[in-house]
């Protein structure tokens, strides 16, 4: 009989597991404490649970916290981790240390369906959704060994194409029974799947990032095909109906492509489109991928684009490129090991 993984279960689900095993209800909180605060890897290590109840649990459950297959470190300190979640199903995640901050970039899917032209993950295709267990495993393994201050769902996959498991993982990350992260330390990025945005805004308090990349419909449709189903103007209309308050932040990710989306016309339309939304624009350098005709503008052009947006009242920053030498920078995650198994 296949055993149930305890790691990645919400407190409500742990309560049901405890009930099914005729154990006291307070045992669910004990299990959560061992899983998410003490980082154990074996039910045998849950020493404040009676031996009899541990034996009961071991008959049908296991912790289920998968170790990474390997890791590689960049010259700038960024670390990329490779996980295997089944035959031919590989996932990458990244740890980005930066002075007092240490950010985990987590994946939510094996590959991706969205087909964005500038992304290696999209070129890999789609092999499946990650479970709550598999999403959290990428974070929990690092937390048990290193300091983590921030989490971004900007790795492989589209988080809102796997909304149920993403929301469960966010609950565990931010709950008192779980890892206890402040929602303001977590950002989830999407290409603009409106039903997912609506659920996320209602069911989570974490930050939201929208992959924009062009303010013009036809151009964005070419870069980000989901624009056909969920036009960015509809995405913005949804966002404008929600009161973000002072703590919650929305940001827009904008990969800058030389001579494609970096003109004065783009700058003016971007400022007009985002007018009245309290937000931040993150400009991202394009990292070259095989077969792509895109290029990133030089540093002077990128800085000028940022400064001119700021002058128009749109808070704009340039995201630092990290881990490019190990293919861990934005848009480069893709499990080459997958192709070797075919």
The structural class is alpha/beta
Q: Could you spell the SSE succession in H and E letters? A: EHHHEEEEEEHEHEHEHEHHEHEHEH
- How are the strands ordered across the major sheet? 3-4-5-6-9-10-11-12-13-14
* CATH fold descriptor of the largest domain: TIM Barrel
CATH superfamily placement of the largest domain = Aldolase class I
CATH-scheme architecture of the largest domain: Alpha-Beta Barrel
Helix content: 25-40%
CATH top level of the largest domain is: Alpha Beta
Shape: elongated
* Distance from first to last alpha carbon: 29 Å
Radius of gyration: 21 Å
What is the count of β-strands? 14
Biggest beta sheet attributes: 10 strands, mixed
Average predicted confidence as pLDDT = 93
Number of domains: 2
Question: What fraction strand?
Answer: 15-25%
- The helix tally amounts to 12
Poorly predicted runs:
none
List keywords for this structure.
342 residues, alpha/beta, DNA polymerase, domain 1, TIM Barrel, 2 domains, ten-stranded mixed β-sheet, two-stranded parallel ribbon, 12 helices, 34% helix
Overview of the structural elements:
The protein is α/β, with parallel strands linked by helices and 342 residues long. It folds into 2 domains: 4-62, DNA polymerase, domain 1; 70-340, Aldolase class I (TIM Barrel, Alpha-Beta Barrel), CATH 3.20.20. The protein has 12 helices and 14 strands. It has helices spanning 11-20, 26-36, 51-60, 120-124, 132-143, 163-174, 194-203, 217-223, 232-240, 264-274, 299-311, 336-340, and strands spanning 4-5, 61-62, 70-73, 79-84, 90-98, 101-105, 109-111, 126-129, 150-153, 186-190, 207-211, 250-256, 279-285, 315-318. It has a 10-stranded mixed sheet with strand order 3-4-5-6-9-10-11-12-13-14, with helices on one face. A two-stranded parallel sheet has the order 1-2. The radius of gyration is 21 Å and the shape is elongated. The two termini are 29 Å apart. The mean pLDDT is 93.
